[in-house]
Amino acid sequence: MKKILEVTDLCKTYIINKRQNNVLKNVSFTVEEGEMVAVMGPSGSGKSTLLYTVSGMDSMTAGRVEFAGKELSKLKPNDLAGLRLDEMGFIFQQMYMLKNLTVLDNIVLPARQSKANPLSPKEKTEYGKELMRKLGIIDIADNDINEVSGGQLQRACICRSMINKPKMIFADEPTGALNRTSSEEVMQELRKINSEGTTIMLVTHDAKVAAKCTRVMFIVDGNIKGEYNLGRYEKETELRERERSLNNWLLEMGW
Amino acid sequence: MYFNILKRDLKRKKTMNVILLLFMILSVMFVSSSMNTVISVMSATDKYMDMSDAHDYFVATTGTQAGKDVEKNLDGSNAVKSYKSENIFYLSENAIEYNGKVLDNQATGILNSVDDISIKIFDENKNELTKVKDGEVYMKSSFMQNNHITEGSKIKIRSGRYTGEFTVKGIFLDVLFGSDMMGTPRFIISRNDFNKYVENNTDPAYDMVKGNILNIETDDTAAVENLVSDVNGVAFTGSRATIKLSYIMDMVIAGVFLVVSICLIIIALVLLKFTIGFTVSEEYREIGVMKAIGIKNSKIRTLYMVKYIAMAIVGAVIGFFCGIPFGNMMMAQSTRNFITGGGDNYLLNIVCSAAVVLIIAFFCWLSTNKVKKFTPVDAIRNGESGKRYKKKGILSLSKSKQKPIFFMALNDILSGFRHFAVMTVTFIVGILMITIILNTISTLQSSKLLAWFSMADCDITLEDKASTDKYTRTDGQTIRSDYLKEMETTLKENGMPAQCFAEGLFKLSVQSDSAKTVALVFHGIGSTADQYSYIEGTAPERTNEVALSYLTAEKLDVNIGDTITIKTNDENEKFIVTALYQCMNDMGEGARLSEKMEMDYSKALGYFSYQVRFTDNPSASEIQSRYDKIAELYPDYTIRTAGEYVDYSVGGIAGYMGDTKNFIIMIVMIINILVVVLMEKSFLTKERSEIALLKAIGFKNRSIITWQTLRIAILMVAAVIAAVILSEPIGQLAVGGIFKMMGSKYIIFDINIIETYIIYPLAVFAVTVLAALISALGVRGVSSSEVNNIE
Question: Where are the domains of chain B?
């Protein structure tokens, strides 16, 4: 399998009130194309910082991050923005969307902004609708974002992250603000996307969510303490066993 | 505990609190300084007249007998409470010599002794002028400026047989003859110097250079007008209202500042209402949490009231001090020829500042009413209750072919116009201020204004300074008519076919069955009555027909078709009123006789310049080349284009208006910059999460900055369009109202479309959008990773 993300000796330090806070300490790992990787760890361990730094949303203090053959530290801010627009997709815990746009407009917006996307404006809209149809939210296309439920909105965020057919999706606690049913639905969609070939890296607190991923990285105090390979699964009945074994591993890691 | 919450709130929401404080300071500054200007300007002329001890009616007479006759009539009347009479000498139009040259552009002047003057006059420091040393002279500032006379230089003044030499001491402020519209320049000298003119002009042949000005106190000006209307030798009469009207051009400027001041107050109040409403609505999380832990609505409301009132008091104190120099600047610009006594009215500033604090408290009270609406759920849902089903977006990106950035900018404005209303109002008001003043200036410089001076349209005017003496004789009409024909022949021989004509002026007693007045009567030589503008009726073509100005018709209580009596050529003759017109001569009072009427020009008051109207419709550039040719043909004449003549007639007011225009453009630009910078700052705070999100999903800084700037640019374009549409009706309301005081029915603005609607709005647009662009650079400080950290 081809590496899509290669992280070597990544460090991230914040200086708050003249005090140095090393959030990430020489983190190294790789993600291969088609993987669905979960990052777990206690609060304040550096999970989200890791996600934002490797996706180019935040700067790194030291180390090397290579995404699809491009070294992020060598890219200018505009190139990084271009990379995020055309080759990456993002899903956040809070379902951030622009308040003045409809759900469909929010989904289509990155496509309309992208120069690399070869489709015409009309085709982009059609593709946005197709994604919404796939995720079962086509009925809310013309709704205001305040008119829909959290689960629907998060699925809309997934559509938005998919609109430019990215190589990789970064998700920061995508189910964190959702109830169990919505959470199940969202993870089902992410699995479907992953099975179609899109690489996913997500941050979660929830072992149920992580159990659906192919690999789990456990991070403590800015270091990756261990990795657990779950592999792919075919049947839903396998999930309970995956979850149990993951929980055991997490206990070993000190969760 | 509440104090702690307040303290932490001030610290944590520093940006928004600073923005709110700045708006409060601006509001106090604008309201206090503008209110001061409004009050001072509105009462300026009355106050100035009171300070000058100018009473209710004024009469100027020529010759020693006329003054005595008027005094005799006044002494025997119960209508007169008191009066003061001052001796004057008239100065002919070529009486002043400066640097060895007779000065140009003069009307008949007046010479006074400082000890004999019947009103109070003031020096340039606005202190009463009571003493003038022998050999020194004071004069009005416009006369000094127009003739480039400097303080300390020598000047010769001739009246009758005597010419005195004086050192120019400086300017003085004179309520009677100080306005720009009052062409008469007055000179103040010492009693000893004045006596030299008296001693050298005892010969009865020079009696006409002497005269009197009477300052009469009365409650019945109509009765006093009757007392003086039959006296021979009355050169000028005017009530307090007439003198006030002579400041019409100053009032135009003051009026423009009045509009500016009112606009600033409106902007200030709109800014406050918006900012307070905006900041309170941003407090949803805190309010929700406080409610969740059981704090009562009234307590929460008090907390915010205390915060905003404390800020308002700080803002009022700072705004009060900032408002003083700003107000003084406005006053200095708006009342050049007045003494207002209002510019340093600090008490008014304090009252205004306190009023703004009360207004802020009221707005806070209204805005904090929302506290009742916020629920603990708001704290959890970031202010979105989920109960709003009203569509927010109006446009659809999916259905639009616009670039997403432009779409977002336009959609933001249409979806949440409330948030942009302050800027829109500010921009519209600013552009309106500029268009109104530009239209006023171009109107004041337009040849169309000739009609307001009871003159027919023409291309060129020629002023012959010696003409008054030359043609003021019984057969003056024939001599002048012959001269005009000769001029037409000369011009035709030089390839300039033209009609040449001139206006003769008379001051005649005019009466109806119910009233009587002394009016300025016009008589065209070389022109026909139908060349003049009338608002109603038809031109007075027969010898027994007359056209009246609205003011005169109103005074005489007559209308078209009525008959009036005019004392022409020493005989009372009946005339039928055939038309009504508007004019600015003699403060709106006047009458026009048919050119067929034969007049005794020994009784004429004077003439206007010769007017030349080319009959072959030459182009503007051809007129300019003919202007130069005529200047060569008539080297002793002062040649002016029609526009220059109008500007000269209104005392060069357009030049002063130019300064006012620059001042207003500067104010508009500063206000736009301040409002845009502060509003953009508040948008960056409010939209931080959206900016972070856009960055996170791959929008470049440049695109986000363009989005933010485009919104301001779109608003500015909309504001320009709205201001262009509104400029005519608002202009009529603002400046037209002042012109209407002159008796004019309406004002037709002469609009320079390129300058008014393109160049200046473009300049304001460029400055405003640049300010928006610079402010929007703050976008660069928002990190895409903040997307998850924002409340």
Answer: 1-51+251-389, 85-216, 395-448+650-791, 465-636
